[in-house]
Amino acid sequence: MESTLLKTSGQDAVIGIPMSKQQFLNWNPDDGFLYEFENGLAIPTDGMKKAERYLVVNIQDKFAQLKAYHEGGRLLAETDCWLTDNQMRRPDLAFFSKEAIRVVDDSSEPIPPFVIEIISPSDTVQHVEQKIIEYFEAGVQVIWHIHPELRMVRVFTSLRRNITCFENDAFDASPAIPDLELTVEELFTL
Length: 190
Fold this sequence. Notes:
The chain contains 6 helices and 14 strands. The protein has 190 residues and is an alpha+beta fold. The longest helix has 14 residues, at 125-138.
């Protein structure tokens, strides 16, 4: 399939492959990319980098001690999250309750109340900001943006409310997972 230019903004260009949702669902690309879907285009993403895995392990280790985990909830890595009928995103981690995980009916897509995105230098500001809007419009309650290059975490609880955390600052996933709390230092410990 041939790719096409989706949007341009200055030097930012997003390339997508035109296809229907059904084609996307049946497609098995072998080019090393993970794909998100947006309004008839498959959009390549890099996926999680090796250097970012320890961050996920630190979050998962903390989460495994919590009530939500023991009740069957899980933080799933790079899983399909259909935010609308024509838009699928793959956050680096997304929280699903036991009940949401067991939804297998194609007519209903559970929206995770909590997502984590690890922001890479290759992510464009426009794309990162657009995803915040999309997540909240879909019903996500909390977003963590982890910036490894800056050793910084930004926590969004609405389109208009966020905090930026460094060093020993504590942050949490309330109201989605009230007892999931870390400091920036804990998160970035190798």
